[in-house]
Amino acid sequence: MANILQTMYQLIDTFWLGRLGANAVAAVSLSFPILFLILALGGGLTLAGTVLVSQYKGAGNQKMVDYSSSQTVFVVFFISIFLAALGFFAAGPMMTLVGAGPEIYADSVTYFQVSSLGFVFLFLFFVFQSLMRGIGNVIFPMFIVLGTVFLNLLLDPLFIFGYGPIPGYGVAGAAVASIFTQALSALVGILVLFRGKKGIRIHFSQMKFDFKWTKRLFELGLPAGLDQSTRAGAMTVMVMLVTGFGSEMVAAYGVGARILSLVIIPALGFSIATTSLVGQNIGAKQLKRAEKIGNLSSGIAFFGLTAVGIIFFIFAEGIIAFFVPDDPEVIKGGALFIKIMAPSFGLLGVQQVMNGVFNGAGFTKASMMLSVFSLWIIRFPLAFMLSHKTGLGPAGIYWSFPISNLIAAATGFAYYKMGYWKKRLKPHDPEWIAG
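RE: above sequence
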């Protein structure tokens, strides 16, 4: 639920920006994949925090739970500053790289730059969420997200259109609203961690450079970050394919991709839950129970998200029209995207659960390899061939999604059943568990 609510930020932005027209939606649609790419580079480290904290929790080592949390906050804070500066100053070249047309270039650059300023707040809250999930405390972060989503619902139209003394910032206004809500959520999360009332207590005294621990964080986090950045990079390249078909098709793809994100987020929720539970059971040396969790999560993700896909298939036109009400071409293209993609939502869920199992076991390289295979070896080449070498046009890009989902889910599940991930475990090393 917390991840679904997190997605509401983008959906609320799309709803209000759709009132400005297709170009406004297209400008943000171009920015979104690259923003996700930069966030993914640091986001892997927050996942590493989840893995370490969950395994120490399972081993009953509260001292290392607190120390790992302090170190994760410390490292991610400085990385977020670097990525914020990188995003701000590289906005123009990156928008040019993905093919932003003259009608949307200025808005896409401004939106990207303003969004980059909020990276520090966004990353700090992501760390808080990840650490809480590692010990199984998921309710409190969800309520924080719920409150900020409602606040964003009010601030979006205020900063986009303006009211009274507050000027309208247009497309950039959506990013300004997000920064306000991200700062509030980060402040609450970090204060909770310092107070130590929710199962984790961080300390300033433990926030100093520890080469051995930072090395371990990067060993786990770098493959996880590359996994997510691989996904974001693939999204960016797919947008570059779409731009060749015009701004209306970019807008149609952008709205469809936002709908896809509404499904990817709960799939990631299953993945993160699986990571936490598998990690805790591995820390407690309960390997059979860890595998049972993988089986159960796969079934829930497959059948649950397949049902969601059927609903989206039936109401595809109405969903797209809700976001872009006055553009028949965008509605037609976006609805086609959803109808082609939606039946494979369950397969996407299985793939994400497999990533969760591998991550919980500390085998984050397997998740990265599965993503590279799915997106770069299967999806992108297939999208290019179907859209440019057949008569399908943009629909060829859409068809690459369900095909790659099927192949990736089958490959990941087969590898999981081989059990190789259980032979790679490090928690049985007493020095590693004790820190």
